[in-house]
Design goal:
Helix content: 40-55%
Protein name: Putative zinc-or iron-chelating domain-containing protein
Number of strands: 9
Distance between the termini: 34 Å
Radius of gyration: 20 Å
Order of helices and strands: EEHHEEEEHEEHEHHHHHHHH
Number of helices: 12
Largest sheet: 3 strands, antiparallel
Number of domains: 2
Organism: Williamwhitmania taraxaci
Shape: globular
Structural class: mainly alpha
Mean pLDDT: 96
Strand order of the largest sheet: 1-8-7
Strand content: 5-15%
């Protein structure tokens, strides 16, 4: 599919007509901070929100509402003839729509899929509404804090992967001739999210998506930093006294699975990431 890249000065029909077509049949992924924001607006605990409204341990919002546009199910948070019931707490994916966001070499790019503006099919009336620049639209959607959260969790994802690298490359596992770890990384990169969630298990899923952080909810960078500290501590406690290469192999696979599961939740491609990390490990002596 063609990707149309944009500058922040490009002017487009970005004023929403609020017909709710984009609240049907979509894929909305969540990072842990966004899950907390949703729960806060819903006035329930993050665990309650996750268990009731999310899939795969919390990384994807459930779309199981009434059928609407194109006979597709509505988002679990959509209320007919009203709109989003938790609009203030909505995640970055909803704030950006119909735009996408990508970081390349630390430079942020915005775009949309296709050569025709995505809203025109479901909401052609947007052509009669005021046009906005991309920058004006992002400001009105209050994306800044949510973009910071996304970037912070991108860094956290890499920190989790780094633990898997340390276990593989700095414990003697690679020197032992291990050829089992990298193939497992590849398998997880291509696994369905429900299979990877099951592999990780409820304990690590809870630590990943339901961190015990009671403050800094309004500061995503601080929240992600504290979350990272909790995950690092858990890894140290669980992997700090491994007895043999089999246990080290299993630990490297597990923590890489956690990193790849988070990767999917922040919109990255787990298969591509897994291949990148496998190539990096091979350059440092790992084998498969």
């Amino acid at each position: 599919m063609v990707t149309t890249k944009l500058s922040i000065h490009d002017k487009l029909p970005l004023t929403c007509s609020r017909t709710g077509t984009c609240c049907h049949g979509k894929l909305v992924l969540l990072n842990p901070w966004e899950l907390v924001c949703f729960a806060k607006e819903k006035k329930v605990t993050p665990r309650e929100f996750r268990d009731r409204y999310c899939e795969f341990g919390g990384i994807r919002l459930r779309f199981d509402g009434a059928l609407g546009w194109k006979n597709q199910p509505a988002c679990s948070q959509y209320v007919e003839n009203f709109g989003c019931s938790v609009h203030v707490g909505r995640p970055l994916a909803c704030r950006l729509y119909p735009l996408g966001r990508q970081i390349q070499s630390e430079v942020v790019h915005y775009m949309y899929q296709g050569d025709e503006f995505p809203c025109l099919e479901g909401c052609p009336e947007v052509l009669t509404l005021p046009y906005l620049t991309v920058g004006e639209y992002l400001g009105g959607q209050i994306t800044e804090m949510f973009e910071k959260a996304q970037d912070a969790y991108l860094n956290l994802m890499q920190d989790l992967a780094d633990i898997a690298f340390v276990l593989l490359l700095e414990t003697g596992l690679t020197e032992s001739g291990d050829k089992h770890t990298l193939p497992q990384w590849r398998v997880m990169g291509s696994e369905l999210p429900e299979a990877l969630a099951e592999r990780i298990g409820p304990d690590w899923l809870d630590c990943l998506m339901l961190p015990s952080i009671l403050d800094d909810i309004d500061d995503p960078i601080s929240f992600a930093r504290k979350h990272n500290e909790l995950l690092q501590l858990k890894a140290q406690e669980q992997f700090g006294a491994l007895q043999n290469n089999q246990e080290i192999h299993e630990a490297s696979v597990l923590i890489m699975g956690v990193a790849l599961h988070l990767a999917r939740g922040i919109g990255a491609n787990p298969a591509i990431l897994a291949e990148h990390w496998i190539d990096t490990a091979k350059k440092h002596g790992a084998m498969e």
